[in-house]
Amino acid sequence: MTLKLEELTKNYKDKVALGGVTFSFTPGIYGLLGPNGAGKSTMMNLITDNLTPTKGRVLLDEKSIDELGSEYRKLLGYMPQQQKIYPELSLRRFLYFMASLKGLKKSEAEKDINHYVRMVKLEDVLGKKLGTFSGGMKQRALIAQALIGNPSILIFDEPTAGLDPKERIRIRNLISEVARDKIVIIATHVVTDIEFIAKEIIMLNNGNIIRSGSPSELLSELDGNVWNIFLSDEEIDEINVKYKVSNISRDTEGVIARIIADSYEGRWKKEAVRPNLEDLYLYLNGD
Predict the structure, then answer these.
(1) What's the rounded Cα separation, in Å, for the pair 225 and 233?
(2) Percent of the chain having pLDDT more than 90?
(3) Sign of the CA dihedral 154, 158, 163, 166?
(4) What does R_g of the chain's alpha carbons equal in angstroms?
(5) pLDDT bucket at 83, cuts 50 / 70 / 90
(6) What is the C-alpha separation between 194 and 44, in angstroms, rounded?
(7) If we measure between CA atoms, which residue out of 252, 270, 250 comes closest to residue 260?
(8) How far, in Å, CA of 253 to CA of 115, rounded?
(9) Which of 7, 78, 93, 242 has the most CB atoms in a 10 Å sphere around its CB?
């Protein structure tokens, strides 16, 4: 299975939201990274057929999704970012409603609902109203509805937004579990959510792909360009002016600043460190 974006473009009057993107997805997890306004939501809405492209097309196994129509949409599972999900409905009624929209028969829906609520560990609250759920429970409910019908393509929009670290890890592990033979696209601002589970990272800015590749391939760009330097509190402002600083911490001897730079000739003691995806994100998008 191959999902291909071919010169995919979306314009809003004089603004280019997505500018001629070409990319192919095969089964596995893809992380979609970029600042606000980079084009992530536009790309997802084009892939899910919620928007019509200004130019270009989306192909599944060389067939246009326009041609495939409802057959294509049956293959999609989508988890939106917003948690405003019918607060007066119980989880059971919500999931049956979503199953009916996907065209499942009642017996099929019952089997799927029972399976996926166990997977997301919500079987004990099937009768409770969604409005009473915590943020993490709502995210898991949204994952469950995306999985109903066993779709081949899953799209998650900020799946861990606003969650505590324990819930983020739980949802990250859950996504890894269901992604075995599916195309999974995760749009997020939380770099650590995808650094260790994505087979490929796509970095967007201003509607264009500025980098793509496996995490190890992308991080090789920063080899030899990330350091810890050791300074005093009084020198922090000077460092912030001269370098991109991804982290500042303190120990008993003073301040440790993690900096990203093409070269370092400063007066401070330095220590080369291994780059991570957060460093690369800042390097490409930071001021």
Answers:
(1) 23
(2) 48
(3) positive
(4) 22
(5) low
(6) 17
(7) 270
(8) 54
(9) 78
Token pair of 175 as six digits: 């996504």
* Beta strand residue intervals within 170-207, DSSP E: 183-188, 200-205
pLDDT of residue 286 exceeding 70: no
Under a CB-based contact definition with an 8 Å cutoff, are residues 42 and 17 in contact? yes
Q: What is the pLDDT of residues 46-65, one digit of tens each?
A: 999 889 999 999 999 999 99
Tokens 């330097």: give the residue: 229
Tokens of 96: 């049956």
**132 to each of 46, 137, 159, 191, 244, how far by Cα in Å?**
33, 9, 19, 29, 43
pTM of the model: 0.86
Other Cβ atoms less than 10 A from the Cβ of 71: the count is: 11
Tokens standing for residue 116: 């996926």
Phi, psi of 171, rounded to the nearest 5 degrees: -70, -40
Alpha-carbon distance of 237 to 223, in angstroms, equals 26
Question: Which amino acid type is present at position 48?
Answer: T
d(CA 259, CA 243): 6
Structure tokens at 28: 């596995």
Give all strands (DSSP E) within 158-264, no chain letters: 183-188, 200-205, 208-213, 226-231, 244-251, 254-260
- Strand, helix or coil for residue 182: coil
Query: What is the per-residue pLDDT across 119-143, written as a single tens digit (0 to 9) for each?
Result: 888 999 999 999 999 888 888 899 8
Q: Reduced to 3 states, what is the DSSP secondary structure of residue 119?
A: helix
Tell me the C-alpha distance between 239 and 176, whole Å. Answer: 39
Q: What is the mean pLDDT of residues 97-126?
A: 91
Grouping H, G, I as helix, E, B as strand and the rest as coil, residue 261 is: coil
Number of residues assigned to the chain = 287
